[in-house]
Design brief:
Elements (H helix, E strand, L loop, with lengths): L1 H6 L30 H32 L12 H9 L4 H27 L5 H14 L11 H13 L3 H25 L6 H27 L13 H22 L8 H35 L13 H20 L4 H25 L5 H21 L6
Helix pairs in contact: 2-3, 2-7, 2-8, 3-7, 4-5, 4-6, 4-7, 5-6, 6-7, 8-9, 8-10, 8-11, 9-10, 10-13, 11-12, 11-13, 12-13
């Protein structure tokens, strides 16, 4: 069956949709092969280093909070074990994240204490009132504004009513004070000891995203001109890989932005500029990835049996491949920092040749759907997005 299928495809390359012989249907397997890049190891090493630093700072914060809590005067010293918990809760990879999580935890804890106090005002806690109070705490925990503090509403209520008992007022004061002390210690440790900026991870993931797009465009360009059937077809199944790369970039850029908030190491203007550029790169790469995924889907549907109808003439293969390669060259130059206007002129010329070939095809094919026009439109939008980002113009000249 596969031998007959291969013979059905013209030997000189791209001539249209691949049609299976009348004797049956053929299932085309297009398993996407994972893309390996040297930047992957750097990203993992950076993340591992940040995790080790966070672990060390957390251990220090827990130890300091325990030491300080054990020396508080009065009844609060009895509940010193809650201070390390507060320090643990308040430790977050970024300073503003620590502030947000710490405050949310204290707010949730306070709501739980207030709820427990309401039960105590009604009389001695019993199985009914405790159960109702915890249930109400769970309802309050459904408020998304409480963030990380949501889970502490029913927990604090239960602890005050069961552990506090007759000394609920003393327990509540000590519980809140020790937790607050732990959160404060965690914040101080986090902001004074190498608060992370996460710029390297963002830059590395942007570079990796560009590399994935370059590989995709080059593989598609090669597939358009190589001997058919194609020796590799993994490019047709990389939709999830492309989407995953954008998600990684988005997470890294937003992480870098978050790490700059309230960070004393972020006062340098150049670092703010790098974060802003990261957002600009993210926006452009999101657009380009969408267009690359679109043209990949169109071409895969033309080559293999798919839900889209269309016909791609052989005359379009060479100019289309050249146009896609010219876009890949611009992305490569962007990654290397060697971009210039001549590269855009070459890409514009390649796109012009493709547009001319498509116009000639439309004259002969009439009203037939043209996947070549769809691909050309995606290429044009990619070039426009790159011009706006790299040359700061709208591409109308």
């Amino acid at each position: 069956m596969m031998a007959a299928l291969f013979l059905a495809w013209p030997a000189d390359g791209c001539h249209g949709r691949l049609l299976a012989p009348a004797s049956g249907e053929v299932e085309a397997t297009m398993d996407a092969k994972p893309l390996s890049h040297p930047w992957t190891g750097r990203v993992k090493a950076s993340v591992a280093g940040q995790r080790l630093l966070l672990a060390a700072k957390t251990a220090l914060a827990v130890g300091l909070s325990w030491f300080l809590a054990s020396h508080l005067p009065g009844e609060a010293e009895k509940y010193a074990y809650y201070a390390p918990l507060g320090a643990l809760v308040g430790m977050y990879p970024t300073f503003m994240g620590s502030v947000r999580v710490g405050l949310q935890t204290l707010v949730g804890l306070s709501l739980g204490i207030v709820l427990a106090a309401g039960v105590l005002l009604l009389g001695t806690p019993n199985i009914v009132t405790i159960s109702l109070a915890v249930g109400l705490g769970v309802l309050l925990a459904g408020q998304r504004r409480l963030g990380a503090g949501r889970e502490y509403v029913p927990v604090a209520t239960l602890l005050v009513l069961i552990i506090g008992g007759r000394n609920a007022d003393v327990f509540s004061f000590g519980y809140a004070l020790e937790m607050g002390l732990g959160v404060a210690v965690g914040l101080v440790v986090n902001v004074t000891i190498f608060p992370p900026l996460n710029l390297d991870a963002a830059r590395q993931r942007i570079t990796r995203g560009r590399t994935i797009l370059i590989s995709q465009l080059e593989d598609v360009a090669t597939a358009l001109t190589e001997q058919w059937p194609p020796r590799h077809e993994d490019w047709a199944g990389r939709q999830e890989v492309l989407a995953g790369a954008v998600n990684d970039i988005r997470g890294a850029v937003h992480g870098a932005h978050e790490s700059h908030k309230g960070n004393p190491r972020a006062y340098r203007r150049s670092r703010h500029r790098l974060v802003a550029e990261g957002f600009e790169d993210l926006a452009v790469l999101e657009d380009i990835t969408f267009y690359v995924r679109d043209l990949t889907e169109v071409l895969a549907a033309v080559i293999w049996e798919g839900p889209l109808e269309g016909h791609l003439r052989a005359e379009l293969c060479a100019p289309m491949g050249k146009s896609l390669q010219s876009v890949a060259d611009i992305l490569t130059a962007w990654d290397d920092g060697s971009i210039d206007k001549d590269m855009f002129k070459a890409a514009h010329d390649a796109f012009g040749a493709l547009a001319l070939a498509i116009a000639e095809q439309e004259e002969s094919d009439g009203a037939r759907l043209s996947p070549g026009a769809a691909v050309a439109f995606d290429v044009q939008r990619i070039l426009l997005a790159l011009r706006r980002r790299l040359l700061h113009d709208d591409g109308t000249d």
